């Protein structure tokens, strides 16, 4: 199943591209850097950084073997000789050996973000940088507002509350030893004709639907869909941020 998802992955890069673009707008591009793309997936950032950073060594790290196979095909097709793929969930690299770590939405999926960030700190050279992007609290607020109107629940509130905040992310980075700052914040919109279009969309089904069903059940979700359909077009706001963390 995971291989099938990897082979039909366009919707996830569509989702991750606005966040990745924040990183690409601010990432230091220097000849000869050693760069780690942590949680590389099918390599949206890996491929760009390998081409934009002359003579760079780019190491793509991700435990998802199917996605890494897709990335390997891209690397082969583009004849990129400066990319290494590592199928792993941890950074098995020497201390003080990396100039730059990037992670596009990766922090959202780390089982233990504090441990991962400590490992990033370990592998970076003094003066090295970590750039990470994430969506923030307030994500898809329009959808959740209707959800609360139709079927309010504490479980829904807890589900919404787990989203990252600026202060919380900065605190995580600082606890790992970094000097951290916010490089950029923005929002973008995801628009759908109605609730049926939203809930039928492949990416929504892949990334969100199971979570919504777990907290509310199919009957509640059907009621939310009907209410959204009654209102017409659904426009969802997604707040995004890019953080920089420096190893002093």
Number of helices: 11
CATH superfamily: Vaccinia Virus protein VP39
Give unreliable regions as ranges: none
The outline comes out as globular
Helix content: 40-55%
Please count the beta strands (DSSP E, at least 2 residues each): 7
Radius of gyration equals 19 Å
Order of helices and strands: HHEHEHEEHEHHHEHHHE
CATH level-two architecture: 3-Layer(aba) Sandwich
What is the CATH topology assignment?
A: Rossmann fold
Percent of residues in beta strands? 15-25%
Number of domains: 1
Mean pLDDT: 92
CATH class categorisation: Alpha Beta
Largest sheet: 7 strands, mixed
Distance between the termini: 43 Å
Give the spatial strand order of the biggest sheet: 3-2-1-4-5-7-6
Model description:
- With 248 residues, the protein is α/β, with parallel strands linked by helices.
- The chain is 48% helix and 24% strand.
- A seven-stranded mixed β-sheet has the order 3-2-1-4-5-7-6, with helices on both faces.
- Helix 2 runs parallel beside helix 3.
- The radius of gyration is 19 Å and the shape is globular.
């Amino acid at each position: 199943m995971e291989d099938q998802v990897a082979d039909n992955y366009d919707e996830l890069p569509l989702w991750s591209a606005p966040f990745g673009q924040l990183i690409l707008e601010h990432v230091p591009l220097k000849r000869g850097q050693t760069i780690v793309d942590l949680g590389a997936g099918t390599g949206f950032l890996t491929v760009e950084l390998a081409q934009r950073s002359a003579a760079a060594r780019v190491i793509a790290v991700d435990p998802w073997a199917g996605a890494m196979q897709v990335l390997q095909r891209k690397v082969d097709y583009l004849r990129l000789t400066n990319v290494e793929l590592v199928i792993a969930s941890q950074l098995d690299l020497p201390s003080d050996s990396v100039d730059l770590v990037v992670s596009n939405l990766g922090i959202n999926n780390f089982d233990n973000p504090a441990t991962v960030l400590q490992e990033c700190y370990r592998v970076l050279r003094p003066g090295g940088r970590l750039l990470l992007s994430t969506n923030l609290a307030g994500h898809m607020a329009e959808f959740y507002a209707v959800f609360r109107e139709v079927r309010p629940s504490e479980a829904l509130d807890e589900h919404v509350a787990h989203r990252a905040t600026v202060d919380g992310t900065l605190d995580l980075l600082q606890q790992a030893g970094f000097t951290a700052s916010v490089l950029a914040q923005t929002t973008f919109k995801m628009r759908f004709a109605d609730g049926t279009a939203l809930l039928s969309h492949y990416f929504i089904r892949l990334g969100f639907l199971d979570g919504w069903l777990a907290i509310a059940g199919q009957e509640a979700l059907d009621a939310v869909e009907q209410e959204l359909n009654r209102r017409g077009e659904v426009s969802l706001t997604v707040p995004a941020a890019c953080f920089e963390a420096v190893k002093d």
